[in-house]
Design goal:
This protein is mostly helical. Helices cover 58% and strands 5% of the residues. Among the domains are: 163 residues, no CATH class; 54 residues, Herpes Virus-1, CATH 3.30.40. It is built from 13 helices and 5 strands.
Length: 397
């Protein structure tokens, strides 16, 4: 009875389950890659990752009935073209191992430190997805493509621009805070000025990152916040933007106008969330910090509030968007096999028919759980005692 109710809940609320699983999983990933300073919040990454992965696996696990053939998604088509019609897929483990060796060699010879930093973790995770790609069963092809596209997009957003900027400035030993200078600091400054918080953006001696200077109401002297790459929220932006790119590409069969609109809104929402996160942190310091607190309120907002604000905004945006927007043309149908009717019940035990419990149909049209029919030996609707043979023939037609 309990398993049947869980299966019915999974079928009726599957999109909600998947959205909750993705938010929980990437909240954990965000805490791993974007560790808050001087806080224990990063330890929540373990339960977040475990709960998200478990919920996602339960939501997408094959139903056990119907065809396991999956229709090709836009992601699978793109990967098919990029891999020379699949000819390069057997070499994925070689590519993955090469990425690992290249990253370790870069740290040992070029980078300022041999330690594995956030960008190294992103590269190594992408390499692991390439190594394990061929070991994933075909019935999980969409989930496998989602993971690969996610890590490839994450490297394209976070790692490749950083390496390109370092090569351009010919400086591989320090952080190049390109995102903070071009996209984050000016936007945060403009929003703060619009709501009545005077501020200036300027360079800081000894740092490549921009500084944002303002005067808190209860302090009376200037405070400068240095927006480094680690504190800019670029990792949070990259994680959720990459997740949505992978989500859109694996949910659509072909590019459509609505798909491009959704993709643009997703990237814009992640960027706006990051700007709002930084604005909220500065506002906490501007309105609440005093001489006694010594900017501790703003530091707490940076370690805890900023991450929670970002996650809450993403959850609210996508929860509302997926609720109000109809399924667009070109989207993959889920599930591939038609679900059982909500009012369909076994004629023998009167429990709901669900995809997780094998069922069979009698020649008279009555549907039963297979175990119930084997235990009874006869169909209660037509009274046939040879119903098992009839059911087998009916299921084969």
């Amino acid at each position: 009875m309990g398993m049947n109710l869980l299966a019915v809940l999974r079928e009726r609320r599957r999109p909600v389950m998947i959205l909750l699983a993705l938010l929980t999983t990437f909240a954990g990933a965000d805490l791993v890659l974007n560790r808050p300073k001087d806080s224990a919040l990063q330890w929540f990454a373990i339960p977040f990752l475990a709960a998200g992965a478990g919920l996602f696996a339960w939501a997408v696990w094959p139903r056990g009935v119907g065809s396991t053939t999956q229709r090709p998604s836009l992601a699978s088509r793109i990967l098919h073209v990029l891999t020379w019609r699949g000819r390069l897929v057997p070499f994925f483990p070689v590519f993955g191992i090469s990425m690992i060796v290249a990253d370790l060699a870069y740290n040992a010879t070029v980078s300022a430190t041999p330690a594995l930093l956030t960008e190294d973790t992103i590269v190594l995770l992408a390499a692991a997805s390439l190594v394990g790609y061929g070991f994933v069963p075909t019935r999980f092809a969409r989930e496998r493509d989602f993971v690969l596209v996610f890590f490839l997009a994450l490297n394209a957003i976070l790692v490749v621009p950083l390496l390109a900027a370092r090569a351009f400035y010919q400086d591989f030993e320090r952080s190049v805070d390109l995102y903070s200078w071009t996209a984050l600091a000016p936007a945060v400054s403009s929003v703060l000025s619009a709501i009545g918080v005077p501020n200036t953006v300027h360079s800081v001696a000894g740092s490549t990152a921009p500084g944002l200077t303002f005067v808190p109401q209860n302090l009376g002297f200037q405070v400068t916040v240095v927006i480094t790459t680690a504190c800019s929220g670029i990792y949070s932006f990259g994680i959720f933007a990459s997740a949505f790119v992978a989500f859109v590409l694996t949910e659509f069969e072909r590019p459509t106008r609505r798909m491009w609109v959704l993709l643009g809104l997703g990237l814009l929402a992640a960027y706006v969330a990051n700007v709002l996160r930084m604005v909220a942190i500065v506002l906490v310091g501007f309105y609440t910090d005093t001489v006694e607190t010594d900017l501790q309120n703003m530091l707490l907002a940076h370690s805890y509030g900023g991450w929670l604000i970002f996650l809450a905004w993403i959850a609210l945006f996508w929860g509302v968007l997926l609720k109000v927007l109809p399924t667009p043309k070109g989207a993959l149908e889920k599930p591939l096999e038609p679900p059982a009717r909500r009012d369909a019940r076994c004629r023998l035990c009167a429990q709901p028919l669900t995809p997780v419990v094998p069922a069979t149909r009698c020649g008279c049209g009555a549907v039963h759980h297979r175990t119930c029919l084997e235990a009874s030996g006869r169909c209660p609707s037509c009274g046939l005692t040879t119903v098992r043979d009839e059911a087998v023939r009916a299921s084969q037609t």
